[in-house]
From TrEMBL:
It holds the Pfam family YbjQ_1. Transmembrane segments: none annotated. Belongs to the UPF0145 family. Gene3D superfamilies: Hypothetical protein apc22750. Chain B. This is UPF0145 protein CBW42_07525. It comes from Butyricicoccus porcorum. It comes from the Bacteria.
């Protein structure tokens, strides 16, 4: 599956199949949340949250790809990501784009 953040793929004629998306809500355990809270006092990267968001993006992307494959897509164009805090220590990540087939 080809994923691009442009609305075209050079050298390919595309048939649009429709919007596809994938999402997940991820959280860290309370112990990790407390240790990351202490980290905010001294500054620096919150590595546990970086890891959590990377995992969430992968899950959301995989779910978007599954939707596209179910439509018979060859690629997804205009891929975008969005995230939002759901509650302290939990975030939703959504990926979305347009599933296309090569003509």
């Amino acid at each position: 599956m080809i994923l691009v953040n442009t609305d075209y793929i050079a050298g390919k004629e595309l048939e649009m199949l429709g919007l596809v998306k994938g999402s997940t809500i991820q959280s860290k355990n309370v112990g990790r949340d407390i240790t990351q809270g202490f980290k905010t006092l001294v500054g620096g990267e919150l590595k546990a949250y970086t890891e959590m968001m990377n995992d969430a993006r992968k899950i959301a992307t995989d779910r978007m790809i599954q939707e596209a494959e179910a439509l018979g897509a060859d690629a997804i164009v205009n891929v975008r990501y969005a995230s939002a805090a759901v509650m302290q220590g939990a975030a939703e990540v959504m990926s979305y784009g347009t599933a296309v087939r090569f003509v």
